[in-house]
Amino acid sequence: MPTTAAPRRLLALLSRHATRVLFAGVFIGLAVPPLAAAARPYLLIGVIALLTAMLLRVDWTAMGAYLRRPVLATALLVWLLGGAPVVVWLVLLPADLPDSLNVSLVLMAAAPPILSAAAIAVLLGLDGALAIVVGLIATLLTPLTVPPMALVLLGLDLNISVGMFMGRLAGIVGPAFVLSLLLRKLAGPDRLERARPEIEGVTVLVMLYFGIAIMDGVTARLLSEPGIVAGWTLAAFIANPALQLIGGLAFAWLGRRGALTVGLMSGNCNMGLLLAALPSGTDFNVLLYFAVAQLPIFMLPALMLPLYRRLLCAPTIGES
């Protein structure tokens, strides 16, 4: 028993300080480039582990309730995969930005929510079930929506094979679902509930790994062209909360918790998914943006946690 107590305490500690740990992750990747380079090749395993932990953590009954509300799910998917990139494209039309930054911002908005959006939602006290249901469906639809969006809005042919892209997604989502079902069956609901802090701790560890790995190559570019990196980073810190605000306001009718969850999904987009599908000749500045855009994804939850707590605890208009 003593041999397992220390790891469990460490995982529980990570769970309690999740937002601070994630905040530190990207800086570790920037400060220790060899560590980021060593972590990068194993991102696929990390994605599967993260999704498995997330599926263990989320209430599947609540997930089923959202699946029985097709109008809501459809509205969210239309916004996330169609409305958001069109809004960004319209906002950028009068702006005099470099072409590579325009492409990056529109592609970011067209991407589905990050797979860890449900985990971040849980950490912030938001609706993890809503995030995972819509996030998974949006991820599966991405091969059908991103290429035409890129072609219509940007005139960019991504040369994505739908069959191959869907196969890659199935290779991520399928094993995670099987593993989570197996673990649920073996552990049972009571043991899973007791292990909740440890599961959250594992989730934080995997997300920390992402934060480190995604910074591979960014430090070298920062040292050689600091102006470009600074400009792209500033754009990411504007685009992420702006999309969160627009998405939250558009779905304010879901109530405060639901609207904040939609906002979270709207701003935190899975650009890593697009990296695997973009052609080899893609502008490196687009790839650079996809990397630095992880900074607000990992840093903003820690910075905005007090705001989320106030918004979730404050009474709505009309309440006494």
TrEMBL record:
The superkingdom listed in its UniProt entry is Bacteria
List the protein's name: Bile acid:Na+ symporter, BASS family
Q: Which InterPro entries match?
A: BilAc:Na_symport/Acr3, Na+/solute_symporter_sf
Q: Which UniProt keywords apply?
A: Membrane, Transmembrane, Transmembrane helix
Query: Mainly resides where?
Result: membrane
Q: Where in the cell is it found?
A: Membrane
Which Pfam family, any one, appears in the UniProt record? SBF
- Entry membrane topology: Multi-pass membrane protein
* Gene Ontology, cellular component aspect: membrane
| Record-annotated membrane-spanning stretches | 18-36, 42-60, 72-93, 105-126, 133-156, 162-183, 204-223, 229-252, 259-280, 286-308
Gene3D superfamilies in UniProt: 1.20.1530.20
